[in-house]
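Deliverable D5.2: sample structural annotation.
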Amino acid sequence: MRLRFTRAFCRTRLTVIALSSILASGCLSPKPSGPEYTTGQAQVQRANELLQRAAGANSTQRQALLLDAAHLLYNAENYSGATRVLQQVEQDRLTLHPLARYSLLSAELALQEDNFFVARHHLTHPALERMWRDLPVELRQRWHRHRATVFAILGEEQRSIKEYVALSSSIDDGDEISKIHQQLWQLLTRIPQLDLQKLVNSEKQQVLKGWYQLAQISRSNQGNIEGLQQAIDRWQNNWAWHPGALYPPAGLDDIRAIANRLPRQLALLLPMSSGKLANAGQTIRDGFMAAYYQVLEQGHQPPVIQLYDTAADPDIEAVYRQAVNDGAEMVIGPLARESVDQLNAIGDLPVPTVSLTYLQDAEVPVANQLLQFGLSAPNEARQVADRAWLEGHRRALAIVPDSALGQRTLAAFQQQWESHGGELVQILNYQRGQVDFKAAVKKALLIDQSQQRSNRLANVLGKRLKSEPLHRRNDLDMVFLFSFPEEGRQVKPMLDFFHADDLPVYATSQIYDGKPQASKDRDLDGVRFAAMPWALPGTIAESMIPKANFVANFFALGLDAYKIHQAALQMQLLPETQLFGSTGSLSLDNNQVIRRQPWAEFRGGKVRRARLPDQTQ
């Protein structure tokens, strides 16, 4: 069966966790069995027979026949036909069981078109939310599974977790329960630390409380695998009856074995004494060592750290070999892209190595034992494309600087956007430091053409026209903005001025510099952006990180680099492993550490967690 939305989103890793449940469970709607249903043609023929019978049936029978016909058409992949039949169903006349079938099929049809909020609407029908316990077990399991999926896709982690807990309790198969717990665990990795603490304290339902407590102790010991193993042992003793203890998420049972294989000596390769990357190198070092000393203060023994200043020796291969000869069992760095390229060209590396940026050419083969990690605006641009598509947008205006980084970021957004089926309608390039965006925004929105039409009409009529509001182009439904705060504060008011205040604006994390400036940032109100977790309340690292964008981002990178040195082996053995880091939720894919960032928005000049588009509070 063709599931267009699952293929698109699995490619982008946007919803791998959530969508895997759909792929694991098969189609939402039950497929009739029997030889007469073996082909799509037979299913369509049978559906037509049911529709003919429905024409002469009483109301109750008619609804049942229409539902059966819609399911047959859906299973035959005739989605437009199934939609037309469902539109004939009188939803208000349905009792609980048919209503559940109607809502589930409607949700699946919406998902075929990536209409996630429409699917959510059908899966949150008030009657079903009140009486789902009265559904037959098969429908109840489908109900929980697909609510969990859609809530996870839309970022409603707590609601999704509750659905997975309910689903797990309704299943007897241990292997299936373990898979559900793995999906649940990955959602728990997205919840900020302070939120977990509140949930542990406030949750009354004991199974949920146990999950939140397990997630909290895991989060508190990231970067300290020895302490993590001890905390997990205590939790399992205290919660021996808990489903998470009986069917633990993949990876928790392997912590002890992994702890025995951790590197005892690390080499940190950074430019620290001179050069354009020296400030970044120093800041990453400070973040890395802050994490190191935190583990030391907890009474555990961290590895020996050796620092190597790559600015003092331009031969990165020689520095790397020296670090390995000095006993390094893992290398963190280098930071410069050309240096990573040089190391990668060596081929098989002698020890695990975590670079702090990405290869310049993503298509070249990656050396054995090289993991790439870093801050990447192009990667964030891909997340913007994912999120904007998910929220229902299809036609974009991109506003980016005319620089090498700006063009790489634009290319990443465009490739991801078009892979979903989106259209990049217009590109507006600007110069870094530009302060006047009036003419550029006016031209991009085709306000000039509106004015020219008005002038031509006045010439034809031979008289001045009453002043009419000028209209912007109507073939856009979103804006992708890559800018730093100074330019962003100029762009957003110009968009509003030229009648584009209804267009949602999506940005990368560079739009926020970490310094609360409500009077200035009111000009950014409404802008949604992929935020570094440190920029939002609720992370352990928030109080540790200096609040200035350049410093904060690289300090956070240092903190996460320390966590990754301990988690790298686990992430390689179990690719579904995720860490809640200061730069994002971290996972491994094809030798790259992928950062998934939470969504924030400016409201009243302040950075807040982003609401779903249909939320008002």
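Annotation notes: The chain is about 50% helix and 10% strand. The CA atoms of residues 440 and 489 lie 15 Å apart.
The annotation will be released with the project's public dataset once the embargo ends.
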